[in-house]
Amino acid sequence: MLTNKELFEQAKLCIPGGVNSPVRSFNSVGGTPFFTARAEGSSLFDIEGKEYIDYVCSWGANIVGHANKTVIARVTEALANGFSYGTPTELEVVFAKKICELVPSIDKFRLVSSGTEAVMSAIRLARGYTRRNYIIKFNGCYHGHSDSLLIKAGSGLQTFGNPSSSGVPEEAVRHTLVLEYNDTEQLVEAFRVYPEAIAAVVIEPFAGNMNLVRPTSEFIQQLRELCTKNGTVLVFDEVMTGFRVALGGAQQLLGIKPDLTTVGKVIGGGMPLAGFGGKAEIMDCLAPIGGVYQAGTLSGNPVAVTAGLAVLDLIQQQDFYLRLANSASLLMDGLKKIANEEGISLSVDSVGGMFGFYFSDRVPQSFAEVKEGNQELFNRFFHLMLDRGVFFAPSMYEAGFISAVHDSRVIDKTLAIARDVFKILYT
Ligand code: PLP
């Protein structure tokens, strides 16, 4: 039997960096990633047979618990009917109807296979609809790896940002403005400097890619008003928050209706499924009825849609989100209490089944404030917890996730381990 270390060495010989998505490599925290052999309920099991309580939950996709029996049964049944047809299916219609019913801002919905595709398509659609080129994104938000969104902030509104990845031409980000999250003044200024030029503002309505950061109500309301006033399409990227923070997503909790919404992760229950939707008037600009081209061989894949439908059924159970939110606050409040008892500065926050903890004395409101957290302490905490069988996201810039089967027994066990870890964190 191979150890994680041995397999990682082999992986690096045939997969760049040994992983198929960079954050999995533990670059930020150091050390060797473990290789998962199987998952069940709230746990992952690695190839050495070690069990981990999983607070990454496939980066938010898993909300009903790993290897949920209901989902497995429905997927198994679907598999027997074939995996992909290249024709429309009734399942897709049922799925789209359900999404439109659960998210009132969505009149029409289209399926794709990843969050990246969903946001990339929504941006193209907003540009086609408005016949404008500029888009605004916020520092610290991640919207997948399409070219125009891989951008580092410049030093002010008049200086443009640079691509954050090599291979992205400067021209590809020339029309992307990067502003600070929760900075209303900057937003007002951007609309003043670029009147009638901004096609879309894309935002994570609760940011989860710079740890968890909430919008202030003033900021998010102004954002909605400015978009409406300027004829700009407001895109809520709910790939992470959709069906994760509430049944109606972040927009339900914030009481704001975006023009377009992107979803992913939870809606596929771990299968490659994502989508985007919104106002009919905008969605009808898509091919084949409109001029904005967008397509996909595997879009609406019947097996993935079946998994998604099974998850959508489960999350509509009575008090599902109430229980999820209670578990997340139980975990976060407990973590803060025991850290503070050991004299360690720790702040916490949670929304529905998503949480953040920060080695800092305040909950951050921007990427700059997240960066003030103590990275060294986080990295040490991460490894000490991992050694004892608790898997938090391997970067202090990622939010955490729980599923419906992370019950009080699992959380108590986590907190007992955390108590031991906080005692030795400084040694
Ligand atoms: N948008 C947000 C908010 C995300 O968190 C992610 C992925 O983490 C994406 C888009 C990209 O999704 P995918 O990794 O499925 O392409």
UniProtKB/TrEMBL annotation:
<dbReference type="InterPro" id="IPR015421">
    <property type="entry name" value="PyrdxlP-dep_Trfase_major"/>
</dbReference>
<dbReference type="GO" id="GO:0006782">
    <property type="term" value="P:protoporphyrinogen IX biosynthetic process"/>
</dbReference>
<dbReference type="GO" id="GO:0042286">
    <property type="term" value="F:glutamate-1-semialdehyde 2,1-aminomutase activity"/>
</dbReference>
<keyword id="KW-0413">Isomerase</keyword>
<keyword id="KW-0663">Pyridoxal phosphate</keyword>
<dbReference type="InterPro" id="IPR015424">
    <property type="entry name" value="PyrdxlP-dep_Trfase"/>
</dbReference>
<dbReference type="InterPro" id="IPR015422">
    <property type="entry name" value="PyrdxlP-dep_Trfase_small"/>
</dbReference>
<dbReference type="Pfam" id="PF00202">
    <property type="entry name" value="Aminotran_3"/>
</dbReference>
<dbReference type="InterPro" id="IPR049704">
    <property type="entry name" value="Aminotrans_3_PPA_site"/>
</dbReference>
<comment type="similarity">
    <text>Belongs to the class-III pyridoxal-phosphate-dependent aminotransferase family. HemL subfamily.</text>
</comment>
<protein>
    <recommendedName>
        <fullName>Glutamate-1-semialdehyde 2,1-aminomutase</fullName>
        <ecNumber>5.4.3.8</ecNumber>
    </recommendedName>
</protein>
<comment type="subunit">
    <text>Homodimer.</text>
</comment>
<dbReference type="GO" id="GO:0008483">
    <property type="term" value="F:transaminase activity"/>
</dbReference>
<keyword id="KW-0627">Porphyrin biosynthesis</keyword>
<dbReference type="GO" id="GO:0030170">
    <property type="term" value="F:pyridoxal phosphate binding"/>
</dbReference>
<keyword id="KW-0963">Cytoplasm</keyword>
<feature type="modified residue" description="N6-(pyridoxal phosphate)lysine">
    <location>
        <position position="265"/>
    </location>
</feature>
<dbReference type="InterPro" id="IPR005814">
    <property type="entry name" value="Aminotrans_3"/>
</dbReference>
<dbReference type="GO" id="GO:0005737">
    <property type="term" value="C:cytoplasm"/>
</dbReference>
<comment type="pathway">
    <text>Porphyrin-containing compound metabolism; protoporphyrin-IX biosynthesis; 5-aminolevulinate from L-glutamyl-tRNA(Glu): step 2/2.</text>
</comment>
<dbReference type="InterPro" id="IPR004639">
    <property type="entry name" value="4pyrrol_synth_GluAld_NH2Trfase"/>
</dbReference>
